[in-house]
């Protein structure tokens, strides 16, 4: 395999377009958490339990849940190498720059979690980014080996949890269902009340959600950071056509193992009649999700080669260039639609309706991102994060752009 050549100081359009794709997948999942207080409780919302509702849940779980945040995590790791190159071009110390960047990312994420969406991923990325900073000199093979170990440990843990769950008496499951129903009702009341009640509810849920972040998202996200770091050192997305055999293997792995594993996860999540089966399905889903995320990456690159000169590719790339701003904008719009900040639609929109809203929101973000970037060098939040990173005020108006 040929050695990587130094990168030119220009953006890689494929990286931006992949971020744009990942943003849509993340929105499809996140809007479900805004639409119903039953999201993530392991029970079906009694207001939407018809065949179409469940089929929509199945589709989202099959194709979107646990996959697109992994793709975004891979791109975070890949972009880490671009940050290294940017620091070298600026003749600036890399570690202080990244520490400032991660601190800024954590602060933005904390505000996002408290005021807009308790399922925030930015604070997790900020903390894991420090871990990646400590590992950034790691070789490609050790990085990939550690990534596999992290996923395997996560899958093993949840497999053990599924076994332990199967040993619980049936009465405990019934009591748990009653408790979850009360929890959903309390959350719905809070989210429909006042903006202050929304913030208080977020703070309550943040005190509980850390276990999900620590034992589900964090190890898998760090694993994909490491995969992205290894790919970035090879500059694989700059020379994507040189890796056609690898891309074919990713597609095959996704079709042979990733998609069946995702189907098991989706079926147990939507139609599973016991929490033990749901947790077992989660373990299978965690094992197969990186494979399906890899297949999505390979499929997207193949499509980009056909669409590169078209409008859709350009719109996706512009949307991905300001991914952080768009991620926060998605949460702001959903918070206004579903919570006490605005229309209070939580609990009244079907899963299919939520999916349609996600498509509309993202469809509007595509031209909005292009309009903004025709006039500005960065997205608004990217501009702020860049200022923190380089400890200076970057340009505001467009005159060409580089990586943060």
UniProtKB/TrEMBL annotation:
Sequence ranges assigned to domain DUF418 in this UniProt record: 232-390
Ribonucleoprotein in keyword set: no
Membrane-traversing stretches: 21-39, 59-82, 103-136, 142-164, 184-203, 209-229, 250-267, 279-304, 324-343, 349-368
InterPro entries noted in UniProt: Bact_Transport_Assoc (IPR052529), DUF418 (IPR007349)
This protein's UniProt keywords: Membrane, Transmembrane, Transmembrane helix
Domain of life of the organism encoding this protein: Bacteria
Protein name per its UniProtKB record: DUF418 domain-containing protein
């Amino acid at each position: 395999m040929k050695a990587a050549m130094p990168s030119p100081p220009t953006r890689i359009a494929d990286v931006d377009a992949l971020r744009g794709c990942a943003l849509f997948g993340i929105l499809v999942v996140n809007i479900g958490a805004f639409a119903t207080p039953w999201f993530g409780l392991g029970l079906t919302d009694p207001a939407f339990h018809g065949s179409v509702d469940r089929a929509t849940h199945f589709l989202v779980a099959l194709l979107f849940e646990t996959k697109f945040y992994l793709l975004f995590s891979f791109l975070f790791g890949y972009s880490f190498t671009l940050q290294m190159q940017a620091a070298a071009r600026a003749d600036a110390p890399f570690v202080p720059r990244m520490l400032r960047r991660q601190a800024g990312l954590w602060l933005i994420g904390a505000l996002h979690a408290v005021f807009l969406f308790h399922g925030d991923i930015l604070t997790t990325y900020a903390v894991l980014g420090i871990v990646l900073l400590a590992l950034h000199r790691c070789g490609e093979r050790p990085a990939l080996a550690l990534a596999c170990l992290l996923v395997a440990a996560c899958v093993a843990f949840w497999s053990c949890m599924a076994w332990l769950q199967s040993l619980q008496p049936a009465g405990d499951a019934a009591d748990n269902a009653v408790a979850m129903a009360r929890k959903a009702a309390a959350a719905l009341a809070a989210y429909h009340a006042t903006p202050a009640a929304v913030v208080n509810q977020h703070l309550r849920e943040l005190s509980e959600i850390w276990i999900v972040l620590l034992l589900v998202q964090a190890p898998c996200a760090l694993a994909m950071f490491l995969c992205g770091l290894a790919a970035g050192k090879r500059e694989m997305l700059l020379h994507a056509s040189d890796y056609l055999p690898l891309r074919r293997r990713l597609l095959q792995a996704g079709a042979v193992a990733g998609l069946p594993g995702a189907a098991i996860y989706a079926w147990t999540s939507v139609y599973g009649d016991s929490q033990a089966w749901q947790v077992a399905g989660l373990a299978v889903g965690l094992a197969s999700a990186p494979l399906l995320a890899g297949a999505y990456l390979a499929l997207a690159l193949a499509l980009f080669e056909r669409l590169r000169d078209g409008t859709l590719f350009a719109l996706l790339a512009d949307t991905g260039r300001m991914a952080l701003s768009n991620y926060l904008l998605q949460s702001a719009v959903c918070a206004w639609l579903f919570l006490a900040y605005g229309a209070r639609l939580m609990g009244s929109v079907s899963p299919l309706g939520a999916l349609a809203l996600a498509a509309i929101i993202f469809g509007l973000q595509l031209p909005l991102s292009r309009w903004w970037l025709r006039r500005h060098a960065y997205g608004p939040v990217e501009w702020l994060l860049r200022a923190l990173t380089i400890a200076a005020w970057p340009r505001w108006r467009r005159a060409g752009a580089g990586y943060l």
